[in-house]
Amino acid sequence: MEEPVDTATAILASAAVLLRECTFDDISYRALADEVGISERTIYRQYPTRAHLLAALSNWIEQTCFPLPPFVTVPDFCAAVHERFRAFDTLPAYAYVGARASAITPTLDTEPAYVTRAIEAMLDVAAPTLNRRDRRRVAASLRYFSSAMFWARLRTGFDMDAGEICDAFDHAVAAVLARLPEATWAPR
């Protein structure tokens, strides 16, 4: 027996299917309603604007297609991001949705993303004496360098593949972390 799927999830799953055939801009609420088998009004109730749909679709794709493996140390973080960048290369249309969604004003919640909290927790362990302001600044930098937006800019702007993007990511992480005072790092 199949589990019932809620309407919001059905809409997002169908939008992901349509992304294989066309761009997000080409997905109309009418086509999406037809794909799901519901009324257009139902979609508008779930996602009143395309920005709401884009943000929700990006979050859903990230959770289902590109979950960031857990990490505790900086090397674990780098390995997790490398894995994600390789996954982006296999499903670029999905990764571009994530990149585009990160460029819009937040429409859903203002709670920090899982990856931001995980990076801050990693920094709490790796650099326990780092002050709060600098920890947040470093976390924001690492969040950006591990994002679909960073991947998309290097992919489209420089025609880099995942391996080259991973190298650029490693350079960026090393540069950010090198700016931290030696005294902030936990003893090894």
UniProtKB/TrEMBL annotation:
Protein name: HTH tetR-type domain-containing protein
InterPro entries named among the record's database cross-references: Homeodomain-like_sf, HTH_TetR
Annotated DNA-binding residue span(s): 28-47
Annotated keywords: DNA-binding
Keyword DNA-binding appears in the UniProt entry: yes
Family annotation (Gene3D superfamilies): Tetracycline Repressor, domain 2
Taxonomic lineage: Bacteria, Bacillati, Actinomycetota, Actinomycetes, Micromonosporales
Cited Pfam families: TetR_N
Boundaries of every HTH tetR-type domain copy: 5-65
Gene Ontology MF terms in the entry: DNA binding
Entries under PROSITE patterns matching the protein: HTH_TETR_2
